[in-house]
Write a structure and sequence with these properties.
Shape: globular
Order of helices and strands: EEEEHEEHHEEEEHHHHHHHH
Number of strands: 10
Number of helices: 11
Structural class: alpha+beta
Length: about 325
């Protein structure tokens, strides 16, 4: 049963609900000891007797505690009170990237900034040996000052070159179940649209799975539309596995390095896909350079006149001198 404002969990007073998902309910709360606002991610009471849910919840806490990066929301601790268990998280003000996309197209400079910060967060997590495995616009927040925070490592896991297939299958099933329960009429708005082909097929994933999801998010910011959509989860997954990438729908001003990031992140063959988020960071920084902007390249350059033009100018002045 959802918590109501005024309810307390330990030293934290609930002030408002923030959202809910397959891995817990999130509330805005006030820390009565330190007099600050935090986000509480509460495991629903119905799940407190489920060993698998408890293990996932504890894993998220440990994963977040192992990460320290300005583009990843922090964890402050774990609180248990009267049968309730909650993660005490940094409260990130501002809309999610999903909310921002709902408002309309995002300017290219803003896309570059958001994408670079997401890539930096992934780079830090991967270097710490952590996969996110559920990167999507709803798990990214953009603060009013433009700072980006990647949230919700509920499906995260330690990097493992060959995890058991059964583990990969169970994780995908949990993700799909959460998506289906949140699905309404019309297009599927859940996680399947951001899964890599190997994850959609129930195979084990590595850092390249996160980079595929990053590419899908980047495409959506640039194109202003979902890359993979459908009326059912099955349709979405079929398109994830089979649909070809069409970059012709991107704005003409999209820099070449950014197009390269998309092509490499959305390479269906994992062996040819971008492997390191640091490469995406480098390409996005290059994309921000003026020389990589198509509109700048198209503008007439204020260069030195050609030798032929210069000689004609000198002859013209000489003719004027003779006439005088």
């Amino acid at each position: 049963m959802p918590l109501t404002p005024g309810t307390s969990i330990g030293a934290y007073d609930i002030t408002a609900p923030l959202g809910a998902g397959g891995m817990g309910e999130v509330y805005r709360a006030r820390d009565t000891k330190l007099d600050r606002h935090v986000a509480l991610k509460v495991l629903p009471e119905a799940f407190t007797a489920d060993p698998d849910r408890l293990a996932r919840f504890d894993r998220e806490a440990k994963v977040l505690a192992s990460l320290n990066h300005p583009n990843i929301a922090q964890i402050y601790g774990v609180e248990e009170s009267r049968g309730s268990r909650a993660l005490v998280l940094e409260l990130v003000e501002g809309p999610t990237l999903a909310d921002r996309l709902d408002r309309g197209p995002i300017p290219l400079d803003e896309v570059l900034s958001i994408a670079r910060q997401i890539a930096l967060a992934l780079q830090s997590a991967h270097e710490a040996g952590v996969l996110h495995r559920d990167l999507k616009p709803a798990n990214v927040k953009v603060r009013p000052d433009g700072a980006v925070k990647v949230l919700d490592f509920g499906l995260a896991k330690a990097l493992d070159p060959a995890p058991p297939a059964a583990e990969a299958d169970s994780d995908m099933t949990a993700t799909l179940t959460a998506s289906v329960t949140r699905m309404g009429a019309g297009l599927v708005m859940g996680t399947p649209a951001y899964m890599s082909p190997e994850q959609a097929e129930g195979q084990a994933t590595d850092a390249r799975g996160d980079l595929w999801s990053f590419g899908v998010v980047l495409y959506e910011m640039l194109a202003g539309e979902r890359l993979f959509a459908g009326e059912t989860v099955a349709q979405v997954l079929a398109r994830v596995i089979d649909r070809d990438l069409d970059l012709s729908v991107l704005p003409a001003a999209t820099p070449a390095p950014m197009r390269r990031v998309l092509r490499r992140c959305l390479e269906r063959d994992g062996r040819r896909r971008m492997r390191d988020a640091g490469e995406a960071v480098s390409d996005l920084e290059a994309a921000a350079s003026p020389e990589n902007r198509p509109e700048d390249a198209a503008r007439p350059a204020a260069a030195e006149p050609s030798p032929l033009r210069a000689s004609r100018v000198r002859l013209a002045w000489a003719a004027c001198g003779l006439a005088l």
